[in-house]
Amino acid sequence: MGLEARHIVVVGAGIVGAATALALVERGARVTVLERASPGSAVSGASLACLGTHMNSEIELPQLIWATQRWALWDQRFNGAFHYRRCGQIRFIDHEADIPTTERWIALERAAGLSASFLTAEQVREIEPALTGPILAASWSPDDALVNPFLSVRTLLRAAMDAGAQLRHHQSVLAIDTRGESVCGVRTADATIPADAVVVAGGPWAADLVAPLGVSLPIVPRKAQCLATVAQPPTIRGVVGACKSEQGGVHGGYTQIQQSEAGQILFNTVLEGGKSAPGAQNTIPQVDLRFVSDSIATLLRLFPGLRGTDVLRSWVRFEAVTPDDRFIAGPVGPTGLYMAAGDNGTGFLRAPVIAEIIAAALEARSGEVDPSPYDPRRFSAGRETHA
Ligand SMILES: Cc1cc2nc3c(=O)[nH]c(=O)nc-3n(C[C@H](O)[C@H](O)[C@H](O)COP(=O)(O)OP(=O)(O)OC[C@H]3O[C@@H](n4cnc5c(N)ncnc54)[C@H](O)[C@@H]3O)c2cc1C
Question: In CATH, what number is assigned to the domain containing residue 161?
């Protein structure tokens, strides 16, 4: 069924809402995007926005490959508007025990047609000369890319609006209305907006919005923190992260270091992950002191030449975490209600996949990507809950 003449409300103008609005309007739907603040002002604008298939998710690899191809197509279509840069990603290795894990990732990515490879410490320095710290070896994924997060959200939203979508920002959706067994619209403080379908792309706020409809989704907030130095001359060429590891902690893959086009070094190292308290996404927290010292220690260990560089700013956002680290994308609850949330901290890359899945579900057809890893029904009957 085509989407012509159907009015679809998208709640949230982060990268997922923006990509979804574009996918829907291009299929002929009449689309209204409602954003309670400014587009991209929540998690998406705070993102490091690495589009990387490497050491990411084995089960989602076909979807991730499709996502990276879609981002590259968007870059061509929008003429470099969001500063897409194919800079590659290095995952450094500190422990012998992590070499087999790294080799396994490289093998499975190569089997899927990707170009990941193993690097000695000397080879790392040819690719990333300032990385002179004491690492054992690394993996290398040359096709991983970076984009500017704000410009990405704005470019996709602008394209959706040029195709006819309406954006209403600074308008919070207070409730989703139903008639019988179907959704019939949404309410804001000063309007009731009828709709044939509602897509909730509300990030860590998504579950609370559908809860009054009796839809219970296991999405909880997780604090994500980041630091930026004052602008530096070109120092770091690509994305540098820790390899997936059997060691846990930072060696479990939770370091990300890169340099922005403006010259700032953006970096974070998280030794302790875990979920935040319910409702944490509604607070304005500061970075943890432990996080600051761990992040600086890792940065200077890898890039000793940066010693003495001033830290300029820090920020915190809340990612939306599900029990199996995968999005919840598809129909939930009453007819016409769709969920597009549960980013698990890597939703920038996945946004085009989620948009394609939602559009295909609304059209009741098979789309270009297999939606099964994100099927909301995997959480029905309490089959999986947060540990
Ligand atoms: C420091 C950091 C680094 C990251 N690095 C990467 C990375 O390298 N690669 C990667 O892929 N991902 C990364 N991520 C994760 C990525 O940024 C997120 O997964 C992604 O931006 C989530 O997008 P979203 O659209 O789902 O959520 P959001 O950007 O949070 O958008 C949801 C929107 O919904 C709006 N909203 C909520 N409730 C309502 C309501 N009731 N009415 C109206 N509007 C509402 C909010 O205001 C918000 O704008 C990182 C995140 C952080 C914080």
Answer: 3.50.50.60
Q: Where are the alpha helices (DSSP H) in the chain?
A: 15-26, 61-77, 99-111, 121-127, 149-162, 206-210, 289-302, 347-363
| 1-48 pLDDT per residue, tens | 579 889 999 999 999 999 999 999 999 999 999 999 999 999 999 999
Q: What is the mean pLDDT of residues 64-78?
A: 98
Are residue 230 and residue 138 in the same domain, yes or no? Answer: yes
Q: Are 193 and 276 part of one and the same domain?
A: no
In a domain, 58, yes or no: no
- Ligand 1 centroid distance, CA of 300 (Å): 29
Cβ(326) – ligand 1 distance below 6 Å: no
User: Of 321, 338, 368, which marks where a domain is finished?
Assistant: 321
Q: Is residue 71 part of a domain?
A: no
Q: What does the alpha-carbon distance between residue 355 and residue 121 come to, in Å, rounded to a whole number?
A: 39
Is 84 part of any domain?
A: no
Q: Return the pLDDT at 387.
A: 54
Position 112 in a domain: yes
Place of tokens 């490879």: 117
328 and 266 together in one domain: no
Report how far ligand 1's centroid is from the alpha carbon of 82 (Å).
17
> Distance from the CA of 344 to the center of ligand 1, in angstroms?
10
Pocket test for ligand 1, best of 10, 44, 287, 326 (most atoms within 8 A of CB): 44
Task: Determine the Cα–Cα distance for residues 10 and 20; give it in Å rounded to an integer.
Answer: 8
The best mutation among 48, 63, 70 to test binding of ligand 1, ranked by most ligand atoms within 8 Å of the C-beta, falls on 48
How does strand 89-93 pair with strand 239-242? parallel
Check if 88 has its Cβ closer than 6 Å to any atom of ligand 1. Answer: no
The mean pLDDT value for 80-85 works out to 98
